[in-house]
Amino acid sequence: MNTHQLPVYDKASSLRADGSRNFVHPADVHGRFDRRRKIAFTFLIALLALLPWLEIGGHPSVFLDFEHRSFYLFGATFNAQDAWLVFFLLSGVGFSLIVATALWGRVWCGYACPQTVFLEGLFRPLERLIEGPRNERMRRNAGPTTWDKLWRKGIKHALFLVLAFAVAHIIISYFVSLPRLYRMVLHSPSAHAEAFVWAAALTGLLYLDFFWFREQLCLIICPYGRLQSVLTDRNTLVIGYDAGRGEPRGKATSSGEKRGDCVDCNRCVVVCPTGIDIRNGLQIDCVGCARCIDACDEVMLKLDRPVGLVRYDSQLGLEGQRATFMRPRVYFYGALGLLGVIVMSFALSTSRPFEANLLRLRDAPPFTVDDGRVRNAFEVHLVNKRGSSTVFELHGDGDPRLHFTVSMPRIELSSLQDRRVAVFIDFARGSVHDGEHAHVEVWQDGARVTLLDTPLLGPK
Amino acid sequence: MADIKRTDAISGDVIHEYDGIEECDNELPNWWLGILYGTMIFAAGYWLAFQQLHVEPTAAEELAAYDAKQRAAQGTVNDEDVLLVAKQPASVVAGKQVFDATCSACHGEKGEGKIGPNLTDSVWLHGGGPVQIFSTIRDGVPAKGMPTWGPVLGAASVKNVAAYVLSIRNTNVPGKAPQGEPWKGL
User: Fold this and answer.
1) Fewer Cβ atoms within 10 Å of its own Cβ: the N or the C terminal residue of chain B?
2) Domain region containing A284
3) How many independent structural domains does chain A possess?
4) Of A211, A230, A249, which marks where a domain is finished?
5) Is B6 close to A6, i.e. CB distance below 8 A?
6) Which of A10, A212, A424 should we substitute to test contact with B (largest number of B Cβ atoms within 10 Å)?
7) Residue A241: exposed, middle, or buried by beta-carbon count in 10 A (0-12, 13-18, 19+)?
8) For residue A20, which residues of chain B lie inside 8 Å, CB to CB?
9) Which domain holds residue B49?
10) pLDDT digits (tens, 9 = 90+) for A147-177
């Protein structure tokens, strides 16, 4: 039996053998990818905070008013009946992400995921500001409880709670209008218990996530992270270590033994927010943050060696082979994504600023006969799906054999308001053939928008 | 490969291997186990509190109680109930608003009758007393094209509309010819 030891990367570096947390304290790093990430974080946090304030067509640019089943997206108005569009929206976004993953690996995780953006853009810098750099943090944590430790921890947690509270309210402002949210913040919690519980729960969750849970979310909970191993292949751009150039690692010795470019300074390991060693190859813990690239480049520049010992490259590229950019999987994922985009565009282009449905009147018989005349009773259900109020008009299509009675010919409806209007269609027996249909015209703001069609029932 | 047994440097346990895919036998994260045991404790507490001790009603009991309350609210209505509503001017005004929006299309703006019968005369098809008017609005006369308004408007609004109709009864606005029987009741 062949028994040999595995390297430690068979274990998540942020967890110890007994299942307890090996808390990661990343060291500071500066470099070109760090600058790019800071720009991305600033832009994304500003965008998230500003979208509810920007108004398009009298409504916030993104406002998901679940309470009133009204949804405003960049000037378009939707109600609960449009929920099927969400499938194409989500699958479109999902497949775009999958294509991006096949091409560029975990760029989403490194630059755009809210977990990364808030943790690396807000919470971790604040922790660094209060508790100092990696070594100071670790020394203080391991040391005895002192006044210095107490006040720093106290202020950090207080500020984390304030930040979590702010982020929670930014998120809630996508679901509750800003003026109402402001009023609720000012009033006592008992006046809006449900909203208060949401805000408190969200604040608590965000606080717990960002002060304690951190990389465990990416590692164990995030389904996208878990999918990496099937979405990427050896052609995918990942962050990797050029073992051919770096090995054998170590500092130059006087004996003149041949060494690779890696001086084994451990900088790439201490800056890693998930605590891995990138030199062990691609690992599922890697969130593609590129901090190890910045760290290694810094060392290589000091040693006057070319940068890029740790770099963005495909696994094939790191082995000195040529990688293919467009592969069958990219075409396949792209085709599926395109299908969703086409269906979505088609659905959006045919979506109308109203809903009009002709239904037989509830609880009424399909037809009644009176004095040789046959009556069919209907109701027209109208919904105004514009962002502003609009006027509908209903009347028959002018068929001389039919007599249309519209209980309310002119209907003014505010945004997303709906109304049922009774419509009766009478005809003399013998004037209509079997299988003939009647038509009701629907006009909106002076233009005919649709023709409702129904078969006529009763003795002909 | 199957005969090669490898050990994990940390926990020292045997690794499962299939088709080159290897599995280490590490401890589960403690926070994960905490959630698992936490849900078990919660389930036991929930079962004890709701199913055994009845600290609070269960969802099914709450629903049954709500349904019973709804049925009671819609139950038998007598003349006094409707007349009580009709005595309150605010109810009549509220009823007129609903009437203008919902009923005037068929019964005319003043209740003088269009497709639907004249409501301002003393002759009624389905009875002209408080309860009769209330019931006709609530249940409708589907065969004649009068919709069932109870589920649409709700019991309170139906009472308000009945109160308004009572207020225009016998005002004899010129309109559709009288239909039905003279009403001699309340």
Assistant:
1) N
2) 236-318
3) 3
4) A230
5) yes
6) A10
7) buried
8) 30
9) 1-56
10) 999 999 999 999 999 999 999 999 999 998 8
